[in-house]
Amino acid sequence: MRPTIRATDRALTDLAEAVNDADLSGRAVAADCCSVASRPADVARREAEALAEAGVAVVACPVSSLSLQGRHTGVRGLAPVRLLWEASVAVGIGLDNIRDVVVGVGTADPLRAAWLLALAGHLSGEDDLSRLGETVVRDKRHLRDPGGPESR
Q1: What's the first-to-final CA gap in the chain, in angstroms?
Q2: Residue 94 needs a FRET pair 20 to 30 A away by CA distance; which of 32, 45, 108, 134 works?
């Protein structure tokens, strides 16, 4: 899915339904998911819960999300990571544009992506930073299970 901020999109709800219908729980990933941040709080919460129930993980891509959006409207957004965590969605951190025509100052450093996500996503509490660091360092080969490795 392309990064977009349109409050009328049903793409993530449709994805969750399709994952359930195809019995693909735990094998589907949605990238960016910045549109969730533009939804009314109750709608965003229901959308996050639908992703969690369907076992759809989310990979937040802060570098490209912040670079691609807002060129014409000034509106930018990130996946609402705290809301996704609260709904028990597995969250990863991705870098999908590294020094290309879209992101001329990109980097392949996952810690910088986590730093940007912490800064722009208001995830600056000690627990938030620890969780983001663990996502990058310990869980880099698979998406972090919301309950941690011991819940697998």
Answers
A1: 28
A2: 45
